[in-house]
Amino acid sequence: MKIGIAGSGMIVRYVLENVWNEVGNIEAKAIWCRDAERDVAENIAGDYSIKDIYEDYDEFLKDNSFDFVYIGLVNSLHYEYSLKAIKAGKSVICEKPFTSTAKQAKELLDAARENHVYVFESILPWYSDNYDEIKNRLPEVGDIKLIQCNFSQYSRRYAGYLNGTVLPVFNPLLDGGALYDIGVYSIHWVMGLAGVPEKTAYFPNIGYNGIDTSGILVMDYGSFKAVCTSAKDSASPGCCMVQGDKGCIVMHSHPGECHKIELTLNGADPVCLDKAPLGEPFVNVYERILPIVEKDEYDVCYAMMDKVIEVMQVMEDARKGAGIKFSCD
Questions:
Q1: In the sheet that 68-71 helps form, which strands lie side by side, from edge to edge?
Q2: pLDDT, mean over the chain
Q3: Domain assignment of residue 303, yes or no
Q4: What would the pLDDT profile of 220-252 be if each residue is shown by its tens digit?
Q5: Is the same domain home to 156 and 258?
Q6: Are residues 115 and 131 in the same domain?
Q7: In terms of pTM, does the model score above 0.85?
Q8: In this structure, are 221 and 239 located in the same domain?
Q9: d(CA 25, CA 155)
Q10: What is the pLDDT of residues 65-80, one digit of tens each?
Q11: pLDDT digit string, tens, across residues 150-162
Q12: CATH (domain of 184)
């Protein structure tokens, strides 16, 4: 897989250092950046032997040395830059959240189908062997009653935010906030098991500029309920639980990691469900994507992205229902 990188933020360097080097069979051939970020992009290119640096995105997309574009930009740019890449005949791997609205997500998938290219969201739970095992063993807990997910991570940018420095994660104009930054993991985790809820309601703590710094999403499935807690203004240990009338599954990690999983049936001792060590969770994403691409399994890719559209719809409905406005609204 030959990749061109769109962006020069911290996530780009992280993926280059900790993921692509470990996976193998992935080459970063070019990087696009804004004019003001040229120095940063040059440092990245030098550190990871990336040959070409572009400041013109259209020229970047004309480069035939790569066939995939990795979108590592702020949330508000995911749709625009992914769509341009797809229309240029490039496949796309986009960081989470895939888009800011369900309509945007559908347009990207429709464009991928039309141009016969791949499009993936880099979302951790769905690419995990351990998460697959949770799905396989889920019927053993009986009729589900409750699902709970917590991903609360105090942001090192929060103190600055309180003092008036608004970086992307706390900027509604850049489609930030707790729900879209880390809540997306919990929602994917729940919906990968339970599908689309009948109703949702988001109860956020709103900051001075209208962004959610933390919040609780309630997902009503009729016969059972799910609750997703997300926070950038406070922290607590991550945990996910599924409770049924015959037992429970407890994952002693946040929904992006998927490890330390136990199945406990009523009256029985806990059984470990981990099928693989934690390792680097992002590696799982590419180890799943590569075989799909190598086998030309476009239908597998598109089926996954149909599910992503459903997640984006739930997130959009939750956000708008709570009165949180993005640049795309």
A1: 52-54, 27-32, 2-6, 68-71, 91-95, 119-122
A2: 96
A3: no
A4: 999 999 999 999 999 999 999 999 999 999 999
A5: yes
A6: no
A7: yes
A8: yes
A9: 34
A10: 999 999 999 999 999 9
A11: 999 999 999 999 9
A12: 3.30.360.10
Tokens of 11: 């996530």
* Residue 47 and residue 11 in one domain: yes
Tokens of 275: 């099928």
Domain count, the chain: 2
**Is residue 305 one of the residues assigned to a domain?**
no
DSSP-assigned letters across all residues of 246-285? TEEEEESS-TTT--SEEEEETTS--EE---S----HHHHH
The token pair at 145 is 């009653």
- Asked if residues 265 and 109 have their Cβ atoms less than 8 Å apart, the reply is no
Is residue 80 located within the same domain as residue 181? no
Q: Is 6 exposed, middle or buried (0-12, 13-18, 19+ CB in 10 A)?
A: buried
Residue 203 to residue 130: CA distance in whole angstroms: 30
Whether 52 has a pLDDT exceeding 80, the answer reads yes
Same-domain status, 102 and 145:
no
| Residue 291 belongs to some domain of the structure | yes
The CATH code of the domain that includes 79 is 3.40.50.720
- The reply to whether 151 falls in a domain is yes
* Chain position carrying tokens 């061109």: 4
Residue 285 to residues 70, 86, 168, Cα–Cα distance (Å): 13, 20, 24
239-298, pLDDT tens digit by residue? 999 999 999 999 999 999 999 999 999 999 999 999 988 778 889 899 999 999 999 999
Smallest Cα–Cα separation from 279: which of 128, 154, 150, 131?
Answer: 128
* Tokens of residue 249, six digits: 């599954």
